[in-house]
Write a structure and sequence with these properties.
Elements: H1 6-15, E1 17-18, E2 61-66, E3 71-78, E4 85-86, E5 97-100, E6 110-115, E7 139-144, E8 151-161, H2 167-171, E9 177-189, E10 192-203
Parallel strand pairs: 1-4, 3-5, 6-9
Antiparallel strand pairs: 2-3, 2-7, 5-6, 7-8, 8-10, 9-10
Organism: Actinacidiphila alni
GO molecular function: hydrolase activity
Keywords: Hydrolase, Signal
Length: about 210
């Protein structure tokens, strides 16, 4: 994968901070605010996939569709802000999701990370306003620059306190193509939210 190797991506993500409605604090696992001691999602080779799939070639995501919650959005590219936080999409009337460009592209081996807002200030609801309604088995379809549309199956949905953001579960190295969708959730605190909603999904076998 490019621009970072899988090992480099994992290390970079562990030290990154996520702010705004796209994410939460993501400290290094050994520091304050790291992942909970009980994993939110089993990753890596400890849980072999029921239906092994072939990883796809790298291709930038340009769109995302989630039929169960009525999402059909363009996808922009996001990087790291000057303060070391992961960028989030801008607050705008035409809200859209953003792919963290230092993660694998959807369908590559590893966790591809896509973020979006639950609300966009005075503009109202954000793209991921109903993300917490997803359930295991729901479909997510990524539209890639090369014209392919890999489909993912939701395996889990978790709401976690931002102070306990599960860095290892979200960004940790895995041996198959996976997807992470992240937004804000839970109780409001001022203009923000106290929690994050995280969706875990796996690439579905072709033709499934």
């Amino acid at each position: 994968m490019t621009p970072l190797s899988r090992r480099a991506f994992t290390a970079a993500a562990a030290g990154a901070l996520l702010t705004g409605c796209g994410g939460a604090r993501a400290a290094h696992p050994s520091g304050t605010g790291g992942p909970t001691t009980t994993p939110l999602h089993t990753t890596g080779s400890s849980r072999p996939p029921a239906n092994p799939v072939r990883a796809l070639a790298r291709s930038i995501p340009v769109g995302l569709r989630i039929p169960a919650i009525g999402v059909d959005t363009p996808v922009m590219q996001l990087g790291l802000a000057a303060d070391g936080t992961v960028e989030v999409p801008p607050i705008a009337a035409h809200d859209e999701a953003g792919w963290y460009r230092y993660s694998p592209t959807p369908g590559q081996t590893g966790p591809s990370v896509i973020l979006a807002h639950v609300t966009v200030g005075a503009y109202g609801d954000g793209v991921f306003r109903h993300l917490a309604r997803l359930r295991p088995g729901d479909r997510i379809v990524a539209r890639l620059e090369n014209g392919s549309q890999p489909e993912f199956t939701v395996t889990g949905v978790r709401t976690v306190a931002k102070s306990d953001f599960p860095t290892a579960a979200v960004y940790g190295d895995v041996d198959r193509p996976e997807l992470r969708l992240i937004t804000c959730g839970g109780p409001r605190s001022g203009s923000g939210y106290l929690d994050n909603v995280i969706v875990f999904a796996e690439l579905a076998p072709a033709g499934s």
